[in-house]
């Protein structure tokens, strides 16, 4: 009889971290907002210890900042942070696509095609929340299908911040959402054609445009400018 292994159940701290991470990404807790351990513990029905451990986990992912004698806060990115995150995205997502193309093209094509179709449906129904989540799923597919655990672990450290920026700093407007959707469709076509150079150029432009939108949102410049998830 083959040896059978049981998966260890998630600890309370892990469960709290997962829920709190999603709350930050979904915009339930604002950027820079204070996180009260006591209130969280009461809300989750746990002691403060797993909450404190969860906050440490989220600090390692860059979603939370813990300041001694002041407390814990949701991260509050600067314009420079946005620039660095965009540079990181352009580097890792393009290379992840190359790995995925060589190892899992069929799975990658299926995933990004399905997600793009769902994005189209969300756009038609004016569901900006679902569109943003699907946008995250689209870019995550390149990393997942890379089959490189080091790339996946590295991306995991910033993926929460990337998703949170989409939620907190974008306000999808119809014609710009259409531009975002068109770019995602084109990215799918470039993957299908194995046009790595073309994919890299479009991904660079796609992410750069996103970064510009985030910086405008952070600085308050051009408050009437249209914004879109990307």
TrEMBL record:
InterPro entries for the chain: GntR_C (IPR011711), TF_FadR/GntR_C (IPR008920), Tscrpt_reg_HTH_GntR (IPR000524), WH-like_DNA-bd_sf (IPR036388), WH_DNA-bd_sf (IPR036390)
Instruction: Look up the coiled coil feature and give its residue ranges.
Output: none
What protein am I looking at? Answer: Transcriptional regulator, GntR family
Q: Which Gene3D superfamilies match?
A: GntR ligand-binding domain-like, Winged helix-like DNA-binding domain superfamily/Winged helix DNA-binding domain
Residues spanning the signal sequence: none
Which organism's genome codes for this protein? Devosia lucknowensis
Keywords assigned by UniProt, alphabetized: DNA-binding, Transcription, Transcription regulation
Starting at the broadest rank, the lineage of the source organism is: Bacteria, Pseudomonadati, Pseudomonadota, Alphaproteobacteria, Hyphomicrobiales
GO molecular function list: DNA binding; DNA-binding transcription factor activity
